[in-house]
Amino acid sequence: MTFLNFFISGISLGSIYAIIALGYTMVYGISKMLNFAHGDVIMVGAYICFYAVVRYGLNPFLAVAVAMVLCSVLGIIVEGLAYKPLRQAPSLAVLITAIGMSYFLQNTALLLWSSNPKVFPSVVGRGAFHMFNGNLSVSHITALTIIVCLVIMVALSLFVSKTKMGKAMRACSEDKGAAQLMGINVNATISMTFAIGSGLAAIAGALLCSAYPTLMPTTGSLPGIKAFTAAVFGGIGSIPGAFLGGLMLGVIEIFAKAYISSQLSDAVVFGVLIVVLLVKPAGLLGKMTQEKV
Amino acid sequence: MADPVLKVENINVFYGSIHAIKGISFEVYEGEIVTLIGANGAGKSTTLNTISGLLHPSTGSISFLGESLAKVPPYKIVERGLAQVPEGRRVFAQMTVNENLEMGAFTQSSSSIPEDLEKVYSLFPRLKERMNQTAGTLSGGEQQMLAMGRALMSRPKLLMLDEPSMGLAPILVEQIFAIIADLHRTGATILLVEQNAQMALSIASRGYVMETGNIVTTGTGQELLASEEVRKAYLGG
Ligand SMILES: Nc1ncnc2c1ncn2[C@@H]1O[C@H](COP(=O)(O)OP(=O)(O)O)[C@@H](O)[C@H]1O
Ligand SMILES: [Mg+2]
């Protein structure tokens, strides 16, 4: 049963990575940039939730909704101020800007909320489900995380495959020039993608801090990098890839912690990533772009 | 004559310091096929992309249906009824044929889409057979048909085609031109850019010959086909 316990923890942690990775991958898909500030949006989302619940006594689920809205707005502002002026710039300039934006958000958080860790109240309390005569226990937040991740995955897949806006997003991801010739407002579509990714980051922030309750201005960094890794692992630009990559990364990390060494777990995670990329450079579900005449 | 559908007046277009379009003017009237021919690098695609609002003229003006297109973003230009089939087709390779056509109808209300899809599928039956395939799996000719069908989905008042014959086998070129001529017969107004001057002039009402950013000659399709100068330069003697 310990194996199963570890596996479920891995899936749960992986679900959080997957939700964050979806934001990375959607933004990469449409603007071909790595938004390194994405991890810090998670942290901002978690702080908004924290204050909404602790100071304003909001219902936790309402607090997450508020955080989603505010983070979406933040995503649109970040894109509009920092990245949009660099659409035609070399990718290195954009990358440096994204790193700068990441530090900007962290430092702003430091000023606003100080470096003192906050104890995040779990959105569903600290209870657990007990199964198999108590041999297997799954905490409420673990179960909720997995369910939320599944719901997001299904909703997002339907959105990009069935709705007009979702299809426009895919069209912009493939060819912005051609998308403009279809009458698609590419700028608005990119803004919307940042908004969705950032809204998801807020959910990830609430789930992450419910499971690991220490909230600091740097809380988003490491999960952000891991989720970025997950997105690359699954095939950056691919939505199912982000989902699969996130889950696998979570499971590998927990197993490595449990069976190898908790200090080396990150090294194992990145080792697996390197092996996968050597065998499949585009990631597990990534498509190698092919040209046709 | 009535007012032109499209009026381009003395536009200059630069890529950084490269002066790609040097003060050209031309018009397209309702119901015409006007062709813009010229060698590779003459500035034909630059002209179309400027009309579509993807590039901006540094001076000069473009008006469509009597209204200026200055400062109008590309997506609004499509809304006004100006569609472009870009060079190299640029279909969305990972989307299905049907989804590509739906993207073409992005500016249209969803209630009119099924009817327009039927029209396009009856014009290009091969696309109907492949409606659920991704566009990347189509042959070059089929992709060209898809690109044209996609542009028609926006119910354009002016259809601009950039080298639809590019890279296609002669038999397919014939087919594509037959379809363009058909569209024209059913009332479409078309601006056709081609390197294949022979084919383009044979179906065109009027033509303009471009050379290094300038329009050097103009006339009816028949006049240009007969012109000594044009024959030498573009029709292989
Ligand atoms: N993106 C670009 N950047 C710089 N120069 C360009 C670009 N696109 C085209 N040009 C130049 O502008 C001129 C006209 O090109 P283009 O309009 O593509 O010609 P055509 O379509 O007639 O073959 C050429 O000299 C070409 O090299
Ligand atoms: Mg060209």
Structural class of chain B: alpha/beta
**How would you sum up the global shape of chain A?**
globular
Radius of gyration of chain A: 19 Å
Terminal CA distance of chain B = 35 Å
DSSP E strands of chain B, number: 10
- The CATH architecture name of the largest domain in chain B reads 3-Layer(aba) Sandwich
The spatial strand order of the largest sheet of chain B comes to 6-7-8-3-9-10
Provide a compact summary of the structure.
The complex is a heterodimer of chains A (293) and B (237). Chain A contains eleven helices and four strands.
Characterise this structure.
The complex is a heterodimer of chains A (293) and B (237). Chain A is mainly alpha-helical. Chain A has one domain (16-222, 235-240). Chain A is built from eleven helices and four strands. In chain A, a hairpin with a 4-residue loop joins β2 and β3. In chain A, α1 (2-31) packs antiparallel against α10 (239-260). The relative contact order of chain A is 0.21. The mean pLDDT of chain A is 92. With 237 residues, chain B is an alpha/beta fold. In chain B, α3 (97-104) packs parallel to α6. Chain B is built from ten helices and ten strands. The relative contact order of chain B is 0.18. The longest helix of chain B has 16 residues, at 170-185. Chain B has a six-stranded mixed sheet with strand order 6-7-8-3-9-10, sandwiched between helices. The mean pLDDT of chain B is 94. The N and C termini of chain B lie far apart (35 Å). The interface between A and B is medium-sized, with 21 and 32 residues. The complex binds adenosine-5'-diphosphate (ADP) and magnesium ion (MG). Adenosine-5'-diphosphate is lined by residues 15, 18, 20, 38, 40-46 of chain B.
